[in-house]
Records
---
Amino acid sequence: MDLLLDALKDSLEMLPFLVITFLAIEIFEHKFGKKFDNKIRTAGPLGPILGALLGILPQCGFSVIGVAFFSQGYITLGTLISIFIATSDEALPILISTPSAASKIVPFIITKAAFAIFWGYAIDLIFKKISIKINIIEEDPKDSCCGENCIDNAFSIKALIYHTLKRSFIIIGYVFAVSLLLNIMFSYKETSWFINTSINNSILQVLVTSLFGLIPNCAVSVGLVEVYLHNAINFAALISGLSANAGLALLVLFKEVKDRKYAGLITLLLLVCSILTGIILTLLKFNY
C-alpha cells in the first residue's frame, strides 16, 4: 500500500505542471505547426538544423510528417534522421513537469539538438547519392500525427481543453505504472543491488536503452525518463534511448515501405547513431 501511495503521490504532484505544459504545446501546434511544416520543405542545406529544431518539440507527429516529406523527396535522409534523433515524445513534458528535474531540462534539449544536427549532416555527407522512395498513402501529414492528439483546423476552446486533459491523464497513467513498478523493484534487495551495479556499466546501459527506444510507442519515452529520474540509468543512456525512439514514425515507415530493406537501413542508421551518441557522452563523462 505504501508503494502504491508513493507512486500515486509522485504522479499527482506532476499533473498540474503537465496540464500547463501540454496546453502550451497544443496552442503552439495550432498556431505555428503549419509554418514549421512549410519551412522544413524548403530548408535545403539547413535541413538537419530545422529538422532538429522541429523534432525537439514534444509532439510525436512531427517524426511521422518527416517520413511523409522524405517519401516525397522534400527532405534528405540526414534531415529525416535529425528529426528522429531530436524527437523525444513525452520525455520533455515530463522533465518540465518535474520540479526536481529543472536543472536537467536545458542540458537535455541542447544535447539532443546538437547530436541530431551532427548526425544529420554526417549522414547527408556519407549517403549523398542515396534516394529512397517510400510508398506512403496519400493523405494530409497532419492527419497522421498521434491520431486524436491533433487539434482541428477550426480552433475550439472545448477541443483544446479536451485534448490537453486527455493527453495529460494518459501520460500520468504511464508515469504511475512505471513509478509503481520501479518502487516494487527497488523494494527487493536483490533487484536494487542489480540495478545499482548495472549503473556502473554505462556502455551496457546505452546498448539496452537504444534497443528499447526502437519500440514505436510513447510509453517507451515515459518509461525511459522515469527510470532516469529514479537514478536507475544515467544521462548518456537516457539520451541514447530517446534518440532511438522516433515515436510512430518507424511503424509508418515499415507499414508503407515497398522494399523493407530501405526501412531496415534507416532503422539501423538510427540505432547506430543512438548507440554512438551514448558512447560519446559516456567517454566525455557528460552526465546530469
Note: The chain has one domain: 2-283.
---
Amino acid sequence: MKRRIAVITAVLLSLTNINLASGATSLAGMPPLLNSKDIYAADKPGLLSKTVKNFPSRIYVPNTQSNTVDIIDPASMKVISTTKVPAEPQHVVPSWDLKTLWVNSDHGNTLTPIDPATGKFGKPVAVDDPYNLYFTPDGKYAVVMSEAAKKIVFRDPHTMAIKKSIPSQCGGVNHADWSADGSTFVVSCEFTGELLLVDTAKMKILKKQKIPNSYAKATTSSHAGMPNMGPMPQDVKISPDGKTYFIADMMSDGVWTMPAPWGKLSFIKTGLGAHGLYVTRDSQNLVISNRNEGSISILRFSDRKLIHKWKIPGGGSPDMGGISADGKIFWVSGRYDNVVYAISLADGHLIGKIKTGLGPHGLAVYPQPGRYSLGHTGVFR
C-alpha cells in the first residue's frame, strides 16, 4: 500500500512539475534542476553534452560596424575566418537545443544560422528587429527582444514564426534571465531604466518597476560622450541558489540585487559602465565587465563582496563575452577598441588581445557545458 501511494505521488508530482526545493510550480516541460542549490550544476568544467562534444572550440565575434562575424581559434588566438552578415550584428546566440548559433542583425532584420560543427553560415531568416534572442527553459519558444520596436516577441525556436507579440511597455528591452523554476523571467529596459517581470507560459507582463535614480545622478562625467539618461540596466543574471537577481547598470556603475522572482532593489558599486554578468564554473563568483573603466570585477555570491578588480593593461572597453569550457579564461569583446580580450580567471592577467572587425559586441564562446541554452551569448543550465 505504501509503495502504491509513493508511486502515485511521484506520478502526480511529475505531471504538475512541482519544484520541491522552492514549493513553486515549475514550467511544464522544463528539464528538472540537477541540484536545487545550484541551477548551474550542469555548467561545470568539461560537462559537454553529446550534442556539442565534437564541435571545435571557437570564439564567434559579431562586429556591429563592420557587419561581419569573426571566428577565432582560441588555441592559436587568431581570427581564422570573417563572414559578411546583414546590418549591425549584435549577438551570437546558441539555440536551446545547442545545435545552432544565431547571429542577431537588428538593423538587417535577420537571424543568420551558423553550424557550429563546420563554421558554415546558412541562409538568413527574416525576423524584425532582433536585438537580442533568448529561449524559454522548456524549449518551446524563442524570445526576441525587439529593442527599437518596443516588443517582446515569442517565436517558434526553429522556424522563427511568430507565436505571440506583446508590447514591452518600456524602452530598450534588452537582456533577461529566468527564475529557477522557469515560470517567470526578468527583463531589463535599457532606455527607460525599468525592469519587467514576465510570465513564461502565459507570455504576459506581470509587473514593472523603475530603478532608483540615486546612483546614476552622480555619474554624468564618468561616461564620456554619453548623456546621463538615469539608470541604464544591462545584463541580468540569477544567482546559483536561484534566490537573487543581479542586474548590471551602466549609468549607475554597478549591479543591483533583487530577491527572485521580484522585489526591492539594493545596489553594489563595481566600476564605471557595469555591463556584462557571468557565473564562474564553480558557481562561487560573478564576473562583471566594467566597459567604461576597462576593468573586470569579481563578486562573491556567498557574501556579495567584491573580491577582485582587474584592470586591462592600457585600458579597454570590455563588453560582452563568455567563459571557456574549462572555466579558466574569460573571453570578452573590446567594444570600442576593436579587439577581443582573453583574461585569466585565476589572477586576472591579460593572456591575449586579438584584433577584430569594428565594434565587436556579443561574442559567443562555443561549445560550453550545459544541457540547454537560454540564449543571449550563452546562458546554460
Note: The chain has one domain: 36-366.
---
Amino acid sequence: MGHDRKFLIALYRKMLLIRQFEERVKYLFLGGGMAGTLHQYHGQEAISVGVCSALHADDVITSTHRPHGHALAKGLTVESLMHELFGKTTGCCRGKGGSMHVGDLEKGMVPAVAIVAGGVPIATGIALAFKYRKEPRVAVSFMGDGAVNEGAFHEAVNMGAIWLLPVVYVIENNLYSASTPIFEMVRLKKLSDRAAGYGIPGVTVDGNDVLEVFETARKAVERARAGDGPTLVECMTYRITGHSRRDPCNYQPEEERKEALKREPLQRFAEYLLAGGLIDQAGLDAIRAEVEAEIERAVQSAMAAPDPEPEAALEDVFV
C-alpha cells in the first residue's frame, strides 16, 4: 500500500495500547479497584485505529457503551482515561462520565453515548453544523450491529444522505448484540446493503485488517469532506471477550471462538510486520514494555489523584 514503516509501527502500538489498557482495567474492575461496569473492546482494535488514523485532529467522532478503543484511537491520553475510570476529578470528564461516557471535545470525541444508536443522530447533527458553517470537517459515528435496527439509525442516516452531510457511519459488526446473534435479527447477509435504501454507498470490509479498514475509511472520509455525502462502512470482526465484565460468553460456540482467535487483529498485524521485515521480535517486545509502563504510570497517578467533593454532584446540572 506504500505506507512507511513509522506509520505501520504506530498502528500496531496504538492497537496494543488499547488491548493492554483494557486488560489492565479488566482486573482493576474485577478486583474492586474501580466501580461500575465495563464493556471491553478486545478483538475490535483494528476498527477504531484504522478509522481514526484516517481523520484530521479536528474531525469528530461519536461512540458507544464500548468506547475505550475509540477514545485512545482518537487521541485521548491513557492518563486522562484512567483517571476517569477511577472517578477522579482529573479524568477526561472530571470523573462524572465513567467507563461508558468517556470523551473529550478538544480531542474530537463527544462523550460516549451508552444508548444503542444514540450517537448516530448526534454525529449527523455535528456534520450538519460543519456543512452549515462551511467547515472542512467530518463526523464519524461508531456503532454496533444492534444499532442498525433502531429507529434513530434510520432517521439519522436518511437525513445525512438527503442533505449530503460530511459524515461516515461505521458499523462494528462483532456478530452479537449482547448475547443475540446477528442472524436472528436481520435477513441481510451484509448490513452495508442497507445503504441502498438511503441512496448512499455501502461497503463491508474485514474489520480485523487494520490496513483495509484504514484505506476504506480514508476514501469514505475524503468523499464526505469533498461534499459527496455519507458512506456506510460495515467492519466485520468478533468480540473475543464478554459483552460486559460478568459475561462468560456461553452463547458463543467454542469452535467459533477458536477460529476468531486465529484471526484477531493484533497478532495478525504483528505477524505482518515480522514477515515484512519491518520489525523483529525484540522490537515488538520493546513496544509492549513501553506500553505497559505507560499504563502502569497512569494507574498509579490515578490512584493518587483527588476524589471529587460531594458538592461536585450539584455542578454541571442543567434544569
Note: The mean pLDDT is 94.
---
Amino acid sequence: MKGARWISFVAARYISRGRKNSPSPVLSILGIATGVFALIVIISVMNGFQLGFIESILEISSGHLRMERLPPGSEMELTEKISALPGVLSVLPFRELHVLLRGRFPNPRGALIRGVPADALERDPGLAGRLQMEDGSFDLSQPDYIVLGAELARHLAVRAGNEVNLLSITTVFGDADESARFFTVSGIFRSDFFEYDLGWGFINIETAAQMSPETMSPVLGIKLHNRWHDQRAIGEISRALAPLGLGGELSLLSWREYNRAFFGALRTEKLMMFILLGLIFIVVGLNIFQAQRRTVLERREEIGLLRALGASDTEVRLVFVWDGFIIGLVGGGVGLGLGLLIALNIQAVFTALEAGVNFFIFLINDISALLGVYIGIGEFAVFSPQIFYIREITSRVIPHEVALIFLFGFLSALLAAWFASGKVSNTRPAEVLRYE
C-alpha cells in the first residue's frame, strides 16, 4: 500500500461511522471545544481586569520609568533632555504630599496629593485618558485649586466649587500656615481604580513645592511608547545624562521593580488559573486515550487485514493518530471560534443575561402581586456596582495566549491518540486472520 491518502480516508470513515462500544468521537470533539472555549473566555476576562488595573497604576501613579533623587532645580533640564529621546512618550514632573482633608464633615480624611504642572493632561496623554471628569474640570491654573477623586469627594461631601481644608503631614519643618490651607475643588475625577478614586487628589506643583520639606525633591514620571522596552530606555537615558555627571545621584526605576509585589501576585494568579483550567485538557485527553485504546482492540481484524495488504506498523498507527488529529483540529477550531466570539462581545453577553433574568424577575413580581403575595425580588446584576467597583465587564484577547490555548487542546487529542495507538505493533496479521 503506497501513499498516505488511504490513511486519511480510513481515519475519516472511523470518525464518521463511530465505534461499536466506545463513546462517539463527537463527545471527544465537544470535550476539546469546551476546554478551549472556557479557557479563552476566562483568561480574556481575567486579562481585562488585570490589564485595567496595571494600566491604571502605570498611567496614573508610577509611569513606565520613575526617576528620583533629582538635584535641586534640575527637573526642567532633565525633562527636556529625556523628552527628546526616541521611544519616550512623555515626561511629567510631580511632587507628592500626604495630607489630611476636611470638607463639609468635621472628620478629616487622609489622602495622597500629587502636585503636577497645570498643563499635566497636555503633557501626559496617558494620564488624560485614564481620568474621567465627573464634575468640573482638571483645572490647576490657580495655586489654591484642587482636583479630587470621586470617592474621596463623596466622603468629604464636596463637589466642584466647594472648599476643603488641607493639612500637610509630609512637612516636617516649616511654617504651620504653609502646611494648612484652604483649596477650592475645581474638578472631580473617576479612574475606575478604587484606591485612586478614594485616596488621591491633584494640586499645582508649585503649591506642592511650597508645602514640601526642602529635602524632598520632585520625581519624574516617564512614559514610553512601548513599556516592554523599559530596560532599553534605562540604558539610553543613562547614556544621555552621563555628560551631566548625575549618574551616581539619580535613581531610575522600571515599572517592573516599582510594582514588583502587586504585578507578581497578578502573574501568579493568572498562572494558577491557567493550570487549573488546563486540567480540562488532561481529563479530555485521558478519555480520548481510553477510547482510542478500545478502538484498537475492537478493530484488530481490520488492522490485521491492513497489515496483510502491506501496510506497515507506522502507517496503521497513523490511521488512529489521524483520528486524534481530526478530533483535536475540529474541537479546537470550534472552541476557538466560540471563545473569540464570546470574549470579544462579553459585555453584550452579560447585558443579555441580565436582561433575561430581570425579565423573569419582573414576571414573578407581577404574578405574586396579582396573587396578593408581594415578593419584591430586586433587580439582578452579575457585577452589582453596590458590591463591585466595576461599571462594565472588559476582556482583552492576547493573540499568543489564544494560540497557546488552541495548541494545548489540539495536542492533548493528538498525543492521546499517539500513545493509545501503540498497541497496533502488537497485532500479528497471521494470528488475527487464522481465526477469520
Note: The first strand starts at residue 65 and ends at 68.
